[in-house]
Amino acid sequence: MPHMAVAEDLEVASFLKGQPKKLFIGGRWVESAGGKTFATHDPATGDVLAAVAEANAEDVDRAVAAARKSFDRGTWRELPPAERAKVLWKIGDMIEERATELAQLETLDNGMPINDALLFHAPLAAATFRYYAGWVTKLDGATQQVSFPGQYLSYTLREPVGVVGQIIPWNFPLLMAAWKLAPALACGNSVVLKPSEETPLSALRLAELMQEADIPDGVVNVIPGYGEVAGARLAAHPDVDKIAFTGSTDVGKLIAKASADSNLKRVSLELGGKSPNIVFADADITRAASGAFLGIFFNQGQVCSAGSRLFVQEKVYDQTLDELLKTVADTRIGPGMDPVNQMGPLVSRTQMERVLGYIRTGTQEGARLMVGGDRPEGLDRGYFVKPTVFADVDGKMRIAREEIFGPVVAAIPFSDEDDLVAKANSTIYGLVAGVWTRDVARAHRVAHALKAGTVYVNCYHVVDAVTPWGGYKQSGWGRELGPYALDLYTEIKNVIVDIA
Asked: Does the predicted model carry a pTM greater than 0.85?
């Protein structure tokens, strides 16, 4: 008997009926200046979920003007810190209270399994707002002991940057919105958020919740649109003081250039990855294989930190792959709204075709296809790809060098620790790495040698609001989450007073 999908939440149904979805600018829901809309689809079926107003350059200008007006008036930044903290905490509570609704909306728009959306994404989004609510009253400066001749009082102030443009991706829409908005608002900034045109719905629903939480008009503006139009204008806008972007490395380079060419605005970038997940011979192989599965197949591999290069020491290479294949064989693939499914569809037909193209390339380059490699039978309407494992991959192959952003892992054997470190670091990226070993000394030694912003030891995809997130090399600039994100959204002012 087939499993039934989770019943659609009544609030989700109500939200989707109100179409087309409008832009949120200056505290009002408005049509796009050009009158255009675009469709967002359910990737499990290809069906249209909603029509959404398409922001153009004029809409970006309107949103930036609204953010600038609110910032200059001080309607948010000059609120007593405890009052701003209350608003952020309230938003966290509202996300938690509406977790089922937000999770279903996320699954319908993105395709992710409903259990992942409900048990991971919504709670972590709520926790992020609460975490930064706690920081609002602690944005302190410091005094310095000055040696310059005379008597001086020197102290620092931490002040908001101003108008912040934020561009988020489609793979974790609600969570990425929280990661961007919460620290920026905690620091007193005004924000223009551009969600991906692939998955705009949860950001728009979040804007409704923030309106209910009494965010002042113009402090948060949400403008769905295409990157080459709305995103490009936001990055180049002369009245935006800072851009925060999560997405591909290629687009990140365009944003950095546009920001420099306009007004040299501050930029933080969370970009791509080709992360090594490393299994040493002394590891618990069952746990390591389970970690390898999670590392690459969570969210259908559409994760910048996916462990897409699986390095396994030669002595346990076959055993580890055998364990991994057992888990793959038991994986349930299907629409994310069905709670028994562990893997849903990719976000779009374009992404599915991109991933299938990489799989064909891997086969052509001589990698050994062990499982997967095509679309599952009976799921032709959606954008599904089977979990795919390539063995005996050479580091020069494209599937070992380029970010696929799909459920495809490249298994690579290695001999010893020195051999491993050289291979693992042989990439333009440096976001995440995983190490599986029982040897404590080796774990620390390898963690120090790997060029990655986060190194997981005997675990993978452990993410918390308190831990820094960002990468080395072409995986980005700056660190999100934890206290480190405060540096992205504040300026440090030094005041020196002659007290002689």
From this structure: yes
